[in-house]
Amino acid sequence: MLKDFSTISHIYIATGYTDLRRGIDGLVSIVQQVFQLDPFENSIFLFCGRKPNRIKALYWDKNGFVILYKRLEEGKFQWPRSQSEVRDLSKQQLRWLMEGLSIDQPKAHKAVSKIDLI
What we know:
By secondary structure, the protein is an alpha+beta fold. It has one domain. The chain is built from two helices and five strands. A five-stranded mixed beta sheet has the order 4-3-2-1-5. Helix 1 links the parallel strand 1 (10-14) and strand 2 (43-48). It is globular.
Protein backbone atom coordinates (compact mmCIF):
# COMPACT_ATOMS: atom_id res chain seq x y z
CA MET A 1 0.00 0.00 0.00
CA LEU A 2 1.07 3.59 -0.62
CA LYS A 3 3.40 4.72 2.12
CA ASP A 4 5.41 7.44 0.43
CA PHE A 5 3.85 10.19 -1.70
CA SER A 6 7.27 11.03 -3.17
CA THR A 7 7.02 7.99 -5.48
CA ILE A 8 3.80 9.23 -7.11
CA SER A 9 4.12 10.42 -10.72
CA HIS A 10 1.04 12.69 -10.74
CA ILE A 11 -1.45 14.10 -8.27
CA TYR A 12 -4.71 14.92 -10.04
CA ILE A 13 -7.49 16.96 -8.47
CA ALA A 14 -11.03 16.81 -9.85
CA THR A 15 -12.21 20.40 -9.50
CA GLY A 16 -15.86 21.09 -8.79
CA TYR A 17 -18.13 18.62 -7.00
CA THR A 18 -18.04 14.83 -7.03
CA ASP A 19 -20.68 12.61 -5.44
CA LEU A 20 -18.62 11.00 -2.67
CA ARG A 21 -21.14 8.17 -2.34
CA ARG A 22 -19.35 6.74 -5.37
CA GLY A 23 -17.08 3.82 -4.63
CA ILE A 24 -14.05 2.56 -6.47
CA ASP A 25 -15.87 1.68 -9.71
CA GLY A 26 -17.64 5.04 -9.86
CA LEU A 27 -14.44 7.01 -9.30
CA VAL A 28 -12.54 4.88 -11.82
CA SER A 29 -15.24 5.61 -14.41
CA ILE A 30 -14.87 9.38 -13.80
CA VAL A 31 -11.10 9.13 -14.29
CA GLN A 32 -11.48 7.11 -17.50
CA GLN A 33 -14.60 8.53 -19.13
CA VAL A 34 -14.72 12.15 -17.99
CA PHE A 35 -11.04 12.99 -17.69
CA GLN A 36 -9.66 10.51 -20.27
CA LEU A 37 -6.87 9.43 -17.90
CA ASP A 38 -5.51 6.02 -16.95
CA PRO A 39 -6.48 5.12 -13.35
CA PHE A 40 -3.84 2.35 -13.35
CA GLU A 41 -0.91 4.76 -13.71
CA ASN A 42 1.22 5.69 -10.70
CA SER A 43 -1.05 8.60 -9.74
CA ILE A 44 -3.43 9.75 -7.04
CA PHE A 45 -6.82 11.14 -8.01
CA LEU A 46 -8.48 13.49 -5.49
CA PHE A 47 -12.23 14.18 -5.29
CA CYS A 48 -14.35 16.45 -3.07
CA GLY A 49 -18.10 16.48 -2.53
CA ARG A 50 -20.45 19.33 -1.65
CA LYS A 51 -19.20 19.35 1.93
CA PRO A 52 -15.72 20.90 1.70
CA ASN A 53 -14.43 19.12 4.80
CA ARG A 54 -14.30 15.68 3.11
CA ILE A 55 -12.18 14.31 0.30
CA LYS A 56 -11.55 10.93 -1.29
CA ALA A 57 -8.39 9.79 -3.00
CA LEU A 58 -8.13 6.93 -5.49
CA TYR A 59 -4.86 5.09 -6.03
CA TRP A 60 -3.89 1.93 -7.96
CA ASP A 61 -1.59 -0.21 -5.77
CA LYS A 62 -0.22 -2.74 -8.30
CA ASN A 63 -2.92 -5.35 -7.60
CA GLY A 64 -5.95 -3.35 -6.50
CA PHE A 65 -7.40 0.09 -5.92
CA VAL A 66 -7.09 1.92 -2.62
CA ILE A 67 -9.52 4.60 -1.50
CA LEU A 68 -8.38 7.08 1.11
CA TYR A 69 -11.02 9.20 2.83
CA LYS A 70 -10.29 12.25 4.94
CA ARG A 71 -12.78 14.25 7.00
CA LEU A 72 -11.63 17.41 8.73
CA GLU A 73 -13.07 17.85 12.20
CA GLU A 74 -12.63 21.62 11.98
CA GLY A 75 -12.22 23.84 8.93
CA LYS A 76 -12.53 22.98 5.27
CA PHE A 77 -10.42 22.25 2.24
CA GLN A 78 -9.88 25.15 -0.16
CA TRP A 79 -11.18 23.14 -3.10
CA PRO A 80 -11.37 24.78 -6.55
CA ARG A 81 -15.09 24.80 -7.43
CA SER A 82 -15.12 26.91 -10.57
CA GLN A 83 -15.30 24.14 -13.15
CA SER A 84 -15.46 20.41 -13.57
CA GLU A 85 -12.04 19.47 -14.87
CA VAL A 86 -8.92 17.72 -13.72
CA ARG A 87 -5.70 19.51 -12.73
CA ASP A 88 -2.25 18.08 -12.18
CA LEU A 89 -0.93 19.27 -8.81
CA SER A 90 2.59 19.53 -7.53
CA LYS A 91 3.52 17.94 -4.22
CA GLN A 92 3.70 21.47 -2.75
CA GLN A 93 0.14 22.19 -3.89
CA LEU A 94 -0.99 18.92 -2.26
CA ARG A 95 0.65 20.03 1.01
CA TRP A 96 -1.12 23.39 0.79
CA LEU A 97 -4.45 21.66 0.16
CA MET A 98 -4.00 19.30 3.11
CA GLU A 99 -3.07 22.26 5.34
CA GLY A 100 -6.30 24.06 4.44
CA LEU A 101 -4.72 26.50 2.02
CA SER A 102 -5.60 27.29 -1.57
CA ILE A 103 -3.64 25.36 -4.20
CA ASP A 104 -3.13 28.67 -6.01
CA GLN A 105 -0.98 30.70 -3.63
CA PRO A 106 -0.70 34.20 -5.15
CA LYS A 107 2.27 35.14 -2.97
CA ALA A 108 4.27 31.96 -3.44
CA HIS A 109 7.51 32.38 -5.31
CA LYS A 110 7.40 30.91 -8.78
CA ALA A 111 10.13 28.53 -9.87
CA VAL A 112 12.74 30.07 -12.16
CA SER A 113 14.23 27.76 -14.74
CA LYS A 114 16.89 30.00 -16.26
CA ILE A 115 18.03 33.58 -15.92
CA ASP A 116 20.42 35.73 -17.93
CA LEU A 117 23.35 37.03 -15.92
CA ILE A 118 25.09 40.21 -16.96
